[in-house]
Amino acid sequence: MANQQVEFKFPKGGIFTIIIIVLGIIFISKSAVTIGPGEGGVIFERFGDGINTETTYGEGFHIVAPWNKMIVRKVRQQSISDEMNVLSVNGLEVKVSGTIWYEPEFSNLGKLIKTKGEDYERELLDPAINAAARSVVGRYTPEQLYSSKRDVIEQEILDEVSTVLKDQYLIVKRVLVEDVKLPPTIRTAIETKLKQEQESLEYEFRLAKAKKEAERQKIDAEGKATANRILSASLTDKILQEKGIEATLKLAESNNSKVVVIGSGKNGMPIILGNQ
């Protein structure tokens, strides 16, 4: 039997269809962008004017022309922590560590990236925080920095940073000064002084409390003395006789008592000789 060869004929237009499918897959893979929760995106137009500042894309699935690029950044509130060496008002070097909460303006994300670049935290936020911290800390003594001025310092840094970043499309929400590190000798001196001040306040409190108690006792004694004087002035001989007679009658009415009264005692009061 002669060998029979089977000839496979490729359908007309099949190659063109395969090419279209491959190109479609490449187009979708290059063009599909998913923006996650808390993120925003702006388009870099490679053959246009660069960053498109008019539109910020929100969360979800987006199709972008393959020759363009979607730049995705976080637009929810974020935080950065930093530690820096600054000088106090008297020239002493202190180390301040803190945390800043910030977020970019969603609608102006394109303008922010176009003017400050994708790494806008390093280009814009860090210099503003450092300048504000040095300016504010330089107004206070180490003792104020260490103890009682934390809230005021935080608010002043926030105000200065907000002023510097005004119209820069980046919003600072909060500043927290977490720690102020002083040289050991200065820190020990401040802690000793604060302890002595606390002990002094406690001593003054005890003195004030004792003084109030003495005044209370004095007022109480004066009140009792006045009451006794009023009572003594009101007790005449006649009133005393009446009170004595009333007491004697009550005693005589008792079932468990026998009272014998003979004559009268001094001032006319009955004399009780015996009872059971």
TrEMBL record:
Which residues are in coiled coils? none
Q: Which key words tag this protein in UniProt?
A: Membrane, Transmembrane, Transmembrane helix
Q: Which residues form the Band domain?
A: 30-194
Where found, per UniProt? Membrane
The name on file for this protein is: Prohibitin family protein
The membrane topology term of the UniProt record is: Single-pass membrane protein
Q: Which residue ranges does UniProt annotate as crossing the membrane?
A: 12-29
